[in-house]
Design a protein that fits this description.
By secondary structure, this protein is an all-beta fold. The protein has one domain: YVTN repeat-like/Quinoprotein amine dehydrogenase (Methylamine Dehydrogenase, Chain H, 7 Propeller), CATH 2.130.10. The protein is built from 1 helix and 34 strands. The two termini are 30 Å apart.
């Protein structure tokens, strides 16, 4: 049974706090997948057990590490509910490849919550049945995050399909995109589940589907789901979300992939450029800032970081021994990270390793500014986000570290939500929304 525990009713919140909460976070990692919010005073300290600076807590059934998205006064989230109530994440640093094989019936759901109170406004069951694939113990049957343009909400459940709802909960269309058996390329039986999230640009939905064979990227009409184009990808399974990048000539869809990092024309699906080499497993989402596209991956032996100039074309692969070119501002063949996507905030590029090693680079040049471990040896899957001069770095055990942005490392706070957290949080103005294994927490400075 879903419930919202309102710890600070909206009617009792100061008007300034309500105004500061007014901002949108429409997709995985927010506007443009940047991970950067526009809040001036997002929270620094909170205590979930005592309710300090907790606006509300909502219990969400099932298991999912999809991220919440926000538009206007609503929060949208997905989940997959198994009849196996004991289902949970396996946290920690480990290299096991064995998937979770739960053949119990599931329900895949899309939910809308009131941003001010956490009340469930509507829920819709997109699909019911036995899962068509297994998944990684750090993953779930609902790992891709939803996306919205404020009118339509699109949710992707891998092999269970692509669904579009009105913001009032009416099903508009659905698409079967085939079996998404994404897993370890050495062993096709090691299925790890789909994780790439859909993105929306203007009136188009873009979806990256990298699987054991017949990988592709496709564009669909947001209004009715009609397929506008589909481009085959010579790729093995990957889990990164594509990013929309604009220049004076093109609007590109940039994808991370094992065989190559690629840019596609958003209107036609034509490949514009390609770059390698890359890691054998790619999970991170590209980020664009300062006229550059930053792409990283951290599965050995190749663990690169690339800073690609927007508007490039052709084969961008660097000559042997070169770290830059007319198309590549700078690069590194080691130092790339595996699961958390990078973030550019101000003049710095920040990477977070699975082991909590935070590294800051000068974004325009690649000069390393500092390197510091966050926490005490925990494991990190969620991607960092930022606002108000602060970085938010979420550990799997539910600890959220608040770090001052800038050229020197300074830990401002360590806060815990009291349950595993593998989803990337959202920022709606000064409202921080953190998803745990069982609850959604809305956090803000309440002046307590």
């Amino acid at each position: 049974m879903m419930r919202a525990k309102v710890l600070a009713l909206a009617a009792g919140l100061p008007l300034l706090i309500l105004a500061a909460m007014a901002a949108d976070w429409p997709q995985f990692r927010g506007p443009g997948a940047s991970g950067v919010g526009d809040g001036a005073k997002p929270p620094v300290h909170w205590d979930a057990s005592k309710g300090t600076n907790i606006v509300w807590t909502a219990e969400i059934p099932g298991l999912a590490n999809s991220s919440p998205v926000v538009w206007g006064d609503r929060v949208f989230i997905t989940t997959a509910i198994s009849s196996d109530a004991k289902q949970t994440f396996r946290t920690g640093l480990y290299g096991d490849t064995d998937p979770v094989a739960d053949s119990s019936p599931h329900k895949w759901k899309v939910l809308a919550l009131d941003k001010k109170t956490g009340k469930i406004l509507w829920e819709q069951t997109a699909h019911e049945g036995v899962p068509k694939t297994k998944w990684h113990p750090k993953s779930s049957q609902a790992s891709p995050s939803p996306v919205t343009d404020g009118t339509v909400v699109v949710a992707y459940f891998g092999s269970e399909g692509l669904y579009a709802y009105s913001t009032e909960g009416k099903l508009l269309w659905k698409k079967d995109v085939g079996l998404q058996n994404a897993g370890w390329f050495f062993d096709p039986d090691s299925e790890w589940g789909a994780a790439s999230s859909p993105v929306v640009y203007r009136h188009t939905v873009f979806l990256q589907c990298d699987r054991q064979k017949d990988s592709f990227i496709a564009a669909f009409d947001l209004k009715d789901g009609k397929e506008l184009w589909r481009t085959a990808r010579a790729e093995i399974p990957s889990w990164g979300t594509p990013t929309i990048v604009q220049d004076k000539v093109h609007t590109e869809v940039v994808t991370n992939g094992t065989k190559a990092i690629r840019g596609y024309d958003a209107g036609t699906g034509k490949q514009l450029w390609t770059l390698g080499p890359n890691s054998e497993v790619t999970c991170t989402t590209p980020v664009s800032s300062h006229g550059l596209i930053f792409v990283t991956a951290g599965y050995p032996p190749v663990q690169p970081i690339y800073a690609i100039k927007v508007g490039s074309s052709g084969d961008l692969t660097l000559k042997d021994g070169k770290e830059s070119s007319t198309a590549i501002a700078w690069s590194k063949q080691c130092g790339g990270v595996y699961l958390p996507s990078t973030i550019v905030y101000g003049e710095h590029l920040y990477t977070v390793g699975n082991n909590g090693i935070l590294t800051a680079y000068a974004a325009k040049t690649g000069t390393r500014v500092y390197q510091q471990r966050v926490g005490e040896g925990g494991s990190f899957v969620a991607s960092p986000i930022a606002a108000g001069g602060k970085l938010y770095i979420t550990g799997e055990d539910g600890d959220v570290y608040v770090v001052k942005a800038g050229p020197q490392y300074e830990l401002l706070a360590k806060n815990t939500i009291g349950e595993p957290a593998l989803a990337t949080p959202a920022l709606a103005g000064d409202l921080l929304i953190v998803r745990g294994a069982r609850h959604l927490f809305a956090i803000a400075e309440l002046g307590q």
